[in-house]
């Protein structure tokens, strides 16, 4: 199986930390986030990894990474994450791919569980999200999205603004897996949208719209600790979760 790292955006919420390098080169325990992702994917058995770049695209040419291919979203400033994903169309159409955000850190076990999930579209989620969000935000609902699954582990709702904790059964982690058939489902939907609307579409928005069309999406609960680095204070949280050697300290 292959993997695609989505690294086109700047990460403006990190302020000056991304002035000279892409967001995924923010350092955690002396190593850029992208190194943590590549190591987890490789340890899980991923054979080839591609990067979709955009902001400071030339930066990647100076790095030594075990990356098989680069795709470039030249319109990264005018588009969102789904448009970046579409830049890797030929990989997605040819073989199953794990797709990863590049502002997250996770375990190889999380990747393996996602790889083994049934269905053509699958995502990982954290059912114990409140513990992590309470460390990141004064009010966890300020940055949470609705998330519900059914008794068979299929996603039934994602991406809306929750009014209460009861509407949030977990949080999407930024890891998904698509088979070629799953990607065709996505491209068929995107092909029916006006170009400007497709450009603005983010990942949870896409997943929500697919659900409304009856598309089945498998939701895989993850018990391993993980983290997201979206603002400077998230790095402090991440440092307490993951050890400098790459091991997990705790939630």
TrEMBL record:
Entry keyword set: Kinase, Magnesium, Nucleotidyltransferase, Transferase
* One function term, GO molecular function aspect: kinase activity
* UniProt key word Magnesium: yes
Q: Where is the MobA-like NTP transferase domain?
A: 3-144
Tell me yes or no: is Transferase among this UniProt entry's keywords: yes
- What domain of life is recorded for the organism? Bacteria
InterPro entries per the record? Answer: GlmU-like (IPR050065), MobA-like_NTP_Trfase (IPR025877), Nucleotide-diphossugar_trans (IPR029044)
The protein's matches in PANTHER family, at most eight in alphabetical order, are given as: N-ACETYLMURAMATE ALPHA-1-PHOSPHATE URIDYLYLTRANSFERASE (PTHR43584:SF8), NUCLEOTIDYL TRANSFERASE (PTHR43584)
Protein name, UniProt field:
Choline kinase
């Amino acid at each position: 199986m292959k993997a695609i790292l989505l690294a086109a955006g700047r990460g403006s919420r990190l302020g000056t930390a991304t002035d000279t390098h892409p967001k995924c080169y923010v350092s955690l325990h002396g190593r850029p986030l992208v190194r943590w992702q590549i190591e987890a994917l490789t340890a899980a058995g991923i054979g080839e990894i591609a990067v979709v770049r955009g902001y400071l695209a030339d930066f990647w040419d100076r790095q030594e990474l075990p990356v098989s291919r680069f795709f470039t979203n030249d319109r990264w400033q005018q588009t969102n994450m789904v448009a970046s994903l579409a830049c890797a169309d030929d990989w997605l159409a040819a073989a199953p791919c794990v797709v990863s955000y590049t502002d997250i850190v996770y375990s190889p076990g999380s990747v393996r569980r996602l790889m083994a999930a049934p269905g053509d579209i699958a995502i990982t989620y954290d059912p114990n999200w409140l513990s992590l969000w309470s460390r990141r935000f004064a009010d966890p609902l300020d940055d949470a999205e609705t998330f519900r699954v059914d008794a068979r582990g299929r996603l039934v709702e994602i991406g809306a603004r929750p009014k209460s904790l009861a509407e949030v059964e977990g949080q999407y982690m930024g890891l998904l897996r698509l088979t070629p058939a799953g990607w065709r489902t996505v491209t068929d939907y995107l092909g029916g949208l006006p170009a400007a609307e497709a450009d603005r579409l983010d990942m949870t928005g896409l997943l929500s719209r697919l659900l409304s069309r009856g598309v089945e999406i498998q939701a895989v609960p993850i018990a391993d600790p993980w983290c997201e680095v979206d603002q400077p204070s998230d790095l402090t949280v991440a440092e307490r979760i993951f050890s400098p050697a790459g091991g997990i300290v705790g939630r």
